[in-house]
UniProtKB/TrEMBL annotation:
Transmembrane segments: none annotated. It comes from Alcaligenes aquatilis. Keywords: DNA-binding, Transcription, Transcription regulation. This is LysR family transcriptional regulator. It comes from the Bacteria. The keyword Transcription applies. Belongs to the LysR transcriptional regulatory family. The keyword Magnesium does not apply. Residues 1-59 form the HTH lysR-type domain. CDD domains: PBP2_CrgA_like_3 (cd08472). SUPFAM superfamilies: Periplasmic binding protein-like II, Winged helix' DNA-binding domain.
Length: 300
C-alpha cells in the first residue's frame, strides 16, 4: 500500500463526502479509491468511514485521523515547495577539495557557468592531490580519481579520464624511440612515478591491444604526488608519464610531449565525488555534483 496515496484519498473522500467524487478529483477509479481506504483501515485497525448506499460520513476515529492527515499533507506540500525553491536558488557555503590539474584546467575555467546558475553559493575550493579527511577538515566533498577507499563515505561516479603514455622529445633523443610497449621492459627506460597516497607507491599501469597486455616498467628516478608536478617531470624528460588526455593536450600541441603507442589502450581512471552520509540532503552539494558531472562529460 502506498500510504501517502491512501491518506490523500481518505482526505479527499472526507472533503467530498463521496468515493466517486474523490476518485475523479484524484484521477483514479472508484475501485482503487475504495481499495486504498480498506487497506488504510486494515493497517490502522479502526473504521475511518461510515458507508451507506446514500452517503459516506467520517467516524469519530476518522475525524481525529483526518485532522492529523491534513496537517501531514500540508507539511509535505510545504517541504516540497521549500525544496523546489532551494533547488532553484541554493545559497550558502560549500567546501570542496579537488585535484590540482582538474581544478586549474577544467573546473576553475568553467566556474563562470556555475555562478551564472548559482550566484548565491559561496564556494571554498581546496586544491591538491592529497587525500582529505572530510570530517577532520570539515569538507563537504572531495573529487578524486581512482577508487574511494573510505567505506564510511558515499562515492558517486561523475566521470572517467582516458589515459595514454607520453614522453618528451628530449627523453626520446636520449633513450631512443619505441614502437612497441615490450621495448620498455629492458633497463633503458623508466617511468616518472606517481605516488598514490593510499598505497604510497607508484601505480602499476598496463597497456592493452586485443589479447596483448604489457605492464609498464616500475623503475623510476623520480616519483611525485601532485598532478602538475608529474606533468612537469614528463616535459622535463625525466621519464615516461601516464597522463589523462585532457592534461596532456596542451603539451602535445606544444610538442613538449609526444603520445606513444596510439593503437594501444589503457583502462580509464574513474572519477568520484565523495561525501559523508550526513551530507546527502545538502542542496548545494547536489547541484555542485551535477555541475561537475556536466563539466567532466566534456573532458576527453
Amino acid at each position: 500500500m502506498d500510504r501517502f496515496e491512501a491518506m490523500r484519498t481518505f482526505a479527499k473522500v472526507v472533503e467530498t463526502g463521496s468515493f466517486t467524487r474523490a476518485a475523479q478529483a484524484l484521477h483514479i477509479n472508484r475501485t482503487r479509491a475504495t481499495h486504498l481506504i480498506q487497506q488504510l483501515e486494515a493497517r490502522l485497525q479502526v473504521s475511518l468511514l461510515n458507508r451507506t448506499t446514500r452517503k459516506v460520513s467520517v467516524t469519530s476515529a476518522g475525524a481525529l485521523y483526518f485532522e492529523r492527515v491534513l496537517q501531514l499533507l500540508a507539511d509535505l506540500e510545504d517541504s516540497e515547495r521549500d525544496l523546489a525553491q532551494a533547488l532553484a536558488s541554493p545559497s550558502g557555503r560549500l567546501r570542496v577539495d579537488v585535484p590540482s590539474p582538474l581544478a586549474s584546467r577544467v573546473l576553475v575555467p568553467a566556474l563562470p557557468s556555475f555562478y551564472a546558475r548559482y550566484p548565491d553559493i559561496q564556494l571554498d575550493m581546496g586544491v591538491g592531490d592529497k587525500t582529505v579527511d572530510l570530517l577532520d577538515e570539515s569538507m563537504d566533498c572531495v573529487v578524486r580519481g581512482g577508487q574511494i577507499q573510505d567505506q564510511s563515505l558515499i562515492a558517486k561516479r561523475v566521470g572517467e579520464l582516458h589515459l595514454a603514455i607520453y614522453a618528451a622529445p628530449s627523453y626520446l633523443e636520449q633513450f631512443g624511440t619505441v614502437e612497441h610497449p615490450k621495448e620498455l621492459e629492458g633497463s633503458a627506460h623508466r617511468m616518472v612515478g606517481y605516488l598514490w597516497e593510499h598505497q604510497n607507491k607508484p601505480f602499476p599501469y598496463a597497456l592493452r591491444r586485443q589479447k596483448e597486455r604489457v605492464c609498464l616498467p616500475d623503475r623510476y628516478g623520480l616519483a611525485v604526488n601532485d598532478g602538475n608536478a608529474y606533468l612537469a617531470a614528463g616535459e622535463a624528460g625525466l621519464g615516461l608519464v601516464c597522463l589523462p588526455e585532457y592534461l596532456a593536450k596542451e603539451a602535445v600541441q606544444a610538442v613538449s610531449l609526444i603520445a606513444l603507442f596510439p593503437d594501444w589502450t589503457m583502462d580509464p581512471m574513474p572519477l568520484y565525488v565523495a561525501f559523508h552520509r550526513s551530507k546527502h540532503t545538502n542542496v548545494r552539494l547536489r547541484v555542485f555534483i551535477d555541475w561537475v558531472t556536466e563539466q567532466l562529460s566534456q573532458v576527453s
